[in-house]
């Protein structure tokens, strides 16, 4: 019988925010980790508890794209490169990416809500989200007026109000339009 390749689950965090990085993670679990599920359904405390357990019990690779890289290449190209880098680092695996697009990358299977159904994708979801959330908390210290520690760069009312008052900082994605900030005013 032919040896099966291990499953590498892949997920991302930060596709839609107005600020911060896009973070992608690939995970091949060597041992089961109890309590894995979609990172969005876990409390921050539970994600932080699971993060080192996933690291200890897996082969993994985390890829990050800055706001500048997202602006320069576009989000789809970043996702494509991230998938390719994970494949290159965690070679000889079968790859399952959460969602419905491979972004043109060969040898990737997709599944909507895989982060809720497949342990390896849940683990990747946790690595990506915790990595990104930690980055945004650090950026909140550097740029306190935006409240990044609360909304993690997503387009909440508080974040939009801060953008209107202070404009963008260096970690904002300039290619992501903000209603009221990017429309020309008519006089």
TrEMBL record:
Co-factor requirement: Mn(2+); Mg(2+)
One GO location term (cellular component): ribonuclease H2 complex
Catalytic activity: Endonucleolytic cleavage to 5'-phosphomonoester
Record EC number: 3.1.26.4
PROSITE patterns: RNASE_H_2
Gene Ontology biological process terms, A to Z: DNA replication, removal of RNA primer; mismatch repair
Keyword Cytoplasm: yes
Binding site for a divalent metal cation: 11-12, 98
Subcellular location per the Swiss-Prot or TrEMBL entry: Cytoplasm
PANTHER family attached to this UniProt entry: RIBONUCLEASE H2 SUBUNIT A, RIBONUCLEASE HII
Its job: Endonuclease that specifically degrades the RNA of RNA-DNA hybrids.
Name the UniProt record assigns to this protein: Ribonuclease HII
GN (gene name): rnhB
């Amino acid at each position: 019988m032919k040896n099966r390749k291990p499953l590498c689950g892949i997920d991302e965090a930060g596709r839609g925010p107005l600020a911060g990085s896009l973070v992608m993670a690939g995970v091949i679990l060597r041992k089961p980790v109890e309590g894995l599920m979609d990172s969005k359904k876990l409390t921050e405390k539970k994600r932080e508890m699971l993060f080192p357990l996933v690291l200890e019990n897996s082969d993994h690779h985390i890829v990050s794209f800055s706001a500048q890289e997202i602006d320069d290449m576009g989000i789809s190209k970043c996702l494509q490169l991230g998938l390719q880098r994970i494949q290159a680092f965690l070679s000889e695996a079968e790859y399952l990416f959460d969602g419905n697009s491979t972004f043109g990358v060969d040898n990737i299977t997709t599944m909507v809500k895989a982060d809720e159904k497949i342990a390896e994708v849940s683990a990747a979801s946790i690595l990506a989200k915790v990595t990104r959330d930690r980055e945004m908390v650090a950026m909140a210290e550097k740029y306190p007026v935006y409240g990044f520690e609360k909304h993690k760069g997503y387009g909440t009312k508080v974040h939009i109000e801060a953008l209107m008052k202070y404009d963008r900082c260096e970690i904002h994605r300039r290619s992501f339009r903000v209603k009221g900030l990017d429309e020309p005013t008519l006089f």
